[in-house]
Amino acid sequence: MHLTHLECPRCGLHHPADKLQNLCECGSPLLARYDLAAVAASVTPEQFGLRPADLWRYRELLPVADPRFVTTLGEGWTPLLRAPRYGHEIGIPDLIVKDEGLTPTGSFKARGAAVGVSRARELGVERIAMPTNGNAGAAWATYAARAGMGATIAMPLDAPTICRRECVAAGADLRLVDGLISDAGRWVARLVAESGGRVFDAGTLREPYRLEGKKTMGYEIVEQLGWQVPDVIIYPTGGGVGLIGIHKALHELRELGWVEDRLPRLVAVQSTGCAPVVRAFAAGEERVTPWTDAHTVAFGITVPAPLGDELILTALRESSGTAIAVDDTEILADLRDFAAREGLLLCPEGAACLTAARHLRAGGWIRPGERVVVLNTGAGLKYPETVDVSDVPLV
């Protein structure tokens, strides 16, 4: 392992990586830092292709020192699927979908859970707790069970029912909250404070290692494209960990010398029913203002005030990217249109990225001939209500 320390991106303070850490004293999330020169001396890009097809192929750039603590269900190395028919229709012939619905637990959250649980286990955690909009809780409950660790999950009542069932099946202590993820977060904060150190807060960006699992999406996209970067990466943004992680991965790859200086433009997609990042980006602000009355069919991005707002906005601006809000009606229409043309049922969050791609191409922000990668962050089968079958004829 080449992990050296944890760094605060806001105040610059360094923290030891061999101790459990949550936020910096200034309130910012912490970022894991590696001895990248040592990584470059120990492995070459060509060697990854000889390793198992999971995210642990990038072990030199991950934070788990002892392989005995690696907790895995085979997560990672999801396919890049070309979408020529739909892409041609919206003016992006080189449109590619990275399908995270094929990961264990049916969403990209398995990446963060695998690495986060593995590192927590290595550092002696016995029980984690976290608020969730659904998929993250299901993933962390599953991987905690795999690791022999306890899990307390707080979830809004309106979260997808399947995620509730996944948590129960994994033996987690599930609590339902009549409100949003922010309300669930306050409940978890009280639980952790009253636990006397017996419960570790594994909420979004409140520990530094979920991000390390999510960043492997960036490594995979580049490796799967033959160590070339696309022009644009479009990502559905709630807590924004994946977007921040992909941005971190791309900069690590550039520092390693494994990709050229030109990096993809990143796009954060939100719903018009909950768009705090879009509003802050458009106003040139460094922090978001909490969104009131948040609601969207893309439940995974219903985050009124993401903790990583500064990191999300930095990633967008450093990459010359943008942020766009799309309407729920269009999300559902594009979800069905894409499935009919390409045979892949996306989750609503993934479909939101298609809507964004269509608008950005129509407006000229995505230029002719550009290669665009869209993240489908979960299996469409987990959201059966997104496809209306009420008018199917009975014969």
From TrEMBL:
<dbReference type="InterPro" id="IPR001926">
    <property type="entry name" value="TrpB-like_PALP"/>
</dbReference>
<dbReference type="GO" id="GO:0009097">
    <property type="term" value="P:isoleucine biosynthetic process"/>
</dbReference>
<dbReference type="Pfam" id="PF00291">
    <property type="entry name" value="PALP"/>
</dbReference>
<dbReference type="InterPro" id="IPR036052">
    <property type="entry name" value="TrpB-like_PALP_sf"/>
</dbReference>
<protein>
    <submittedName>
        <fullName>Threonine synthase</fullName>
    </submittedName>
</protein>
<dbReference type="InterPro" id="IPR000634">
    <property type="entry name" value="Ser/Thr_deHydtase_PyrdxlP-BS"/>
</dbReference>
<feature type="domain" description="Tryptophan synthase beta chain-like PALP">
    <location>
        <begin position="72"/>
        <end position="378"/>
    </location>
</feature>
<dbReference type="GO" id="GO:0006567">
    <property type="term" value="P:L-threonine catabolic process"/>
</dbReference>
<dbReference type="GO" id="GO:0030170">
    <property type="term" value="F:pyridoxal phosphate binding"/>
</dbReference>
<dbReference type="InterPro" id="IPR050147">
    <property type="entry name" value="Ser/Thr_Dehydratase"/>
</dbReference>
<dbReference type="GO" id="GO:0006565">
    <property type="term" value="P:L-serine catabolic process"/>
</dbReference>
<keyword id="KW-0456">Lyase</keyword>
<keyword id="KW-0663">Pyridoxal phosphate</keyword>
<dbReference type="GO" id="GO:0004794">
    <property type="term" value="F:threonine deaminase activity"/>
</dbReference>
<dbReference type="GO" id="GO:0003941">
    <property type="term" value="F:L-serine ammonia-lyase activity"/>
</dbReference>
